[in-house]
């Protein structure tokens, strides 16, 4: 067993496992800069984990690797049991589509499409068609995030908080095993930020999807199961917020649309 594995033993139900992951960028031949210096990390189903750290510490780079948008320069990255080094680009795309839901600070909704159509996009991209089941699920998700009456509206007709809730419904539409959220509440007021956070939390509880959320908000980080702190490309601290990372199920908590400002 390698040193990295010894310090980061695989959990049986790990959705995500990183062992000694490094990332370097070429910033001009022959200069190469390493921005992640050997990251060991694992996340189990049901875990809801905050990733914090100063600007430039490597949080987005780490999320891009875990989200399979970039490849590590070294180390081992296993997603849902798949060692990603063994996968070609097509297989990585398929794994990403089936396993990972992304929520970004800027929601990246397509302005010409309605809320419902935006939520259907992952289904269309992954399966080539929006099936009636996918449409029913998209409508159900929008209702659950409190936007049942706004399905036919385009992003420009919705507030920032509402747009972010559409983005969350889109991210959850394929029932991802892993949710990656990069400052999803960064440009929202406190009440909208709390509502968006609670939606992710409820999905995590109800469906057991692991969630890794980048946040600069200590209030929200304190409500996660664990807080991982990244400084200069290294994990320097990890705080366990709960004795048991497998948070109890509270079925139906997503069924009540949140009270949020419009
Ligand atoms: N494509 C790239 N080429 C070269 N350097 C990069 C590239 N992407 C990121 N970096 C560098 O990697 C380091 C980490 O950047 P990253 O965006 O991951 O940090 P961050 O913690 O997400 O910062 P912030 O909180 O400001 O978003 C920075 O020094 C950045 O300049």
The largest β sheet comes out as: 6 strands, mixed
- Using the coordinates shown, work out and report the CATH topology of one domain: Rossmann fold
Task: Describe the global form.
Answer: globular
CATH architecture of one domain: 3-Layer(aba) Sandwich
List of distinct ligands in this structure: adenosine-5'-triphosphate
Main sheet strand line-up: 6-7-8-3-9-10
CATH class of one domain: Alpha Beta
**Portion in beta strands:** 25-35%
**Element string (H = helix, E = strand):** HEEEHEEHEHHHEHEHEE
Organism: Tibeticola sediminis
Keywords: Antibiotic resistance, ATP-binding, Cell membrane, Lipoprotein, Membrane, Nucleotide-binding, Transmembrane, Transmembrane helix, Transport
GO biological process, one term: lipoprotein localization to outer membrane
Family: Belongs to the ABC transporter superfamily. Macrolide exporter (TC 3.A.1.122) family.
Write the layout of secondary structure elements.
Layout: H1 3-7, E1 14-28, E2 31-44, E3 48-52, H2 59-66, E4 74-79, E5 82-83, H3 89-99, E6 100-104, H4 115-127, H5 132-144, H6 160-172, E7 178-182, H7 190-207, E8 210-214, H8 218-221, E9 226-231, E10 234-240
Parallel strand pairs: 3-8, 3-9, 6-7, 7-8
Antiparallel strand pairs: 1-2, 1-4, 4-5, 9-10
Bound molecules: adenosine-5'-triphosphate.
The site of adenosine-5'-triphosphate has 11 residues, from strand 1 and helix 2.
Protein name: Lipoprotein-releasing system ATP-binding protein
Biased composition (Low complexity): 247-262
InterPro entries: AAA+_ATPase, ABC_transporter-like_ATP-bd, ABC_transporter-like_CS, ABC_transpr_LolD-like, MacB-like_ATP-bd, P-loop_NTPase
